[in-house]
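just leaving the lab so this will be short. what follows is a protein written twice so to speak, once as letters and once as structure tokens for the fold. can you read through it and tell me how you think this chain folds. thanks a lot i owe you, the record is right below.

___
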Amino acid sequence: MKQFKGRPLTGGSAELEAVVSKQGVNTLATFQKSALTGAKQVIASDQNNPDLFGKNITGKALCLPITIGSTTGGLVIQTVCAMKINPKAFLFAEHVDSLAASGIVLAKVWEDSDVIAVDLLGKEFLDAVKTGDRLLIDEDGTVTIL
């Protein structure tokens, strides 16, 4: 068991399966196809991200350094949360970027989403966590790899 302490951005606790990207996640490229087709789950569609491409990320803990890409990133996150096909948690190794933060906060406030977000977990977190690991996320921003 390894523990990492981050900064909770939107509260919540859960035990979830990890899906890990070692590179920045392009939210538009990752979520757009599922959002536009009204899919029941997000199958990551960013062909430039081999860590995520083709993986189901709905209801999972998306572990990532940061989001990258289009200025529509926040809207895309809010949209998948409104559709209830979002990752249950966004676990950032670095500072959350403003676009991801805006989408997550708007989803919480406007969509009554239960999405969890924690940032500042550190590079060591991304080095330790693997896709398929079970994670315990606590309200205080502690993430434990079980």
